[in-house]
Amino acid sequence: MSLASFRPSPGADVFSAEELQRYSRHFVLPEVGRSGQEKLKAASVLVVGAGGLGSPALLYLAAAGVGTIGIADMDSVDASNLQRQVVHTSDRIGRPKTASAAETLRGINPNVVVKSHNERLTSDNALEILRPYDVVIDGTDNFPTRYLLNDACVLLGKPCMYGSVLRFEGQASVFDARRGPCYRCLFPEPPPPELAPNCAEAGVLGVLPGIIGSIQANEAIKIILGVGDVLIGRLLLFDALRMEFREVTLRKDPGCPVCGKQPMITTLIDYEAFCGSTTTRKDEHMIKEITVEELKRKMDEKANIVLLDVRQQEEHEYVNIGGALIPLNELQGRLGELDKNAETVVYCRSGSRSARAVAFMQQQGFSNVENLRGGILAWAEKIDPSKPRY
Ligand SMILES: [Zn+2]
Fold first, then answer.
1. Which residues are catalytically annotated?
2. Could you say which of 140, 204, 310, 340 is the most buried, measured as most Cβ atoms within 10 Å of its Cβ?
C-alpha cells in the first residue's frame, strides 16, 4: 500500500470533541497537525509479538491515535514477562497476551480499533494476516518468525519496523524492500541454533526493549505521517551499559534471495527447516572447519595463518578479528589477491557465508582453507566477550 493510501477522506470532521482535546499536542506540531492526525486515524499497524518490544510499541501507537492496531501473539501472560512486557499486568497471568494487550489499549484510547490474532504466524496464514495492514512492527523473538515476517513483508510490499534485544544491547532498523534493503540483505542466513542465544537463556535488561520498541513505534508513526528521515538503510545499534548509539549503513543486496534482482524466494517457505540449518549442515561436512579455540591457539603460537573476512565492509568495520576483507560477492573476481597454498581461515558472522566461500575456494584449488565454525559470534561467545554481537 502506498503512502497515498493514508490520505484521509476530505469533508466531515473525523474527530470528536474528546479526540480534539486528546490529540491537542499533536495538532500544534506542524509535522503532524490536523491532517497528520487524520492519517494516523486512517492507518493500520500490525504488531507481531505482544512481548518486550511489542509492549511499548502498542502503548504508544494506541496513545498516538493509530486507528487500527493488530496484535499477533499466541502466548499467554507469564510471571517472567512482567519485568519488561509493560502492556500486561500481574492480574492477567495465564490469560492470552492478545486479550491482555487489547484490554490495556482500550483503556488508553477507546477510539482505537484493536484486532487480535491469537494464533501462530505461519507460512500458510502470514500473507492473509498481514495483507490488510499498512505497517508491520517486528516484535518477534525467534529467527523462523523473523524470516517469515521479512519475506511476507517483501512479497506484500510493506514496511517492517525491525527491532531486537539481548542482555544490554539492542538494534533497530526499517526494512522496506521497495526503498531499501530487507532483513535478508543484512542476514542472508540465520546463525546456527546453538549460537543464537535468546533472552530466556541470556537475559535482557527490562528497560531495553522499552527503548527499542519505542523507536519502532516512532518509525511507524513517521512512515504514516510521511515526515523525517526513517531508519531505512540504516541499522541503529544501542548499548545500554555504555549508553551509546551507533549506526551502520545497510545496502540492498542485489543478490538477495527475496528482494534481489532475481529472487529465488517468491512464496513463503518452511522457516523452521531453514533456521534449523538442516539444509546447510550437509555441505558443511564437505569442507574443512576450525573451531574458535583451535584458531586462538594457533594465533597465540604465531602460526602463519591468513585470516579472511567475507562479510560486508560495514560489518567488518563494526567488529572483526583481523585479516583481509573480501566480501563474499566479490570473492570470485578477487581470488588472485590470495595465496592458494597459505593456511587460510575464512570467517563471517555465523559461519554460513564463510562455509560457502570455503567450498568455492576448495573448488578453485585452495588446498589449505578452513571455515571458522560459528564465526564472529562464536569468537565473541567463547574467546573475546568484549567483541560486540550483532
Ligand atoms: Zn533483501
1. 199, 348
2. 310
Ligand 1 midpoint to CA 365 (Å): 31
Which CATH number is 3-275's, of 3.90.70.10, 3.40.50.720, 2.170.120.40, 2.40.50.140? Answer: 3.40.50.720
Task: State the chain's maximal CA–CA distance in angstroms.
Answer: 78
CB 201 within 8 A of CB 214: no
Distance between CA atoms of residues 182 and 209, nearest Å: 21
| pLDDT single digits (tens) 281-329 | 444 456 789 999 999 999 999 888 999 999 988 899 999 999 999 998 8
Is the per-residue pLDDT at 169 higher than 90? yes
Q: Is 163 left (phi over 0), alpha (psi -120 to 50) or beta?
A: beta
**DSSP string covering 265-317:** --S---HHHHHTTHHHHHHHHHS-EE-HHHHHHHHHTT--EEEEE-S-HHHHH
Residue 233 Cα to ligand 1 middle (Å)? 11
**Quick one: angle between helices 54-64 and 97-108, nearest 10?**
30
How many residues are listed for the chain in this entry? Answer: 390
As residues whose CB is below 5 A from the ion ligand 1, the structure lists: 182, 184-185, 256, 259
| CA 139 – ligand 1 centroid, Å | 19
Domain locations along the chain: 3-275, 280-382
At the top level of CATH, which class does the domain 280-382 belong to? Answer: alpha beta
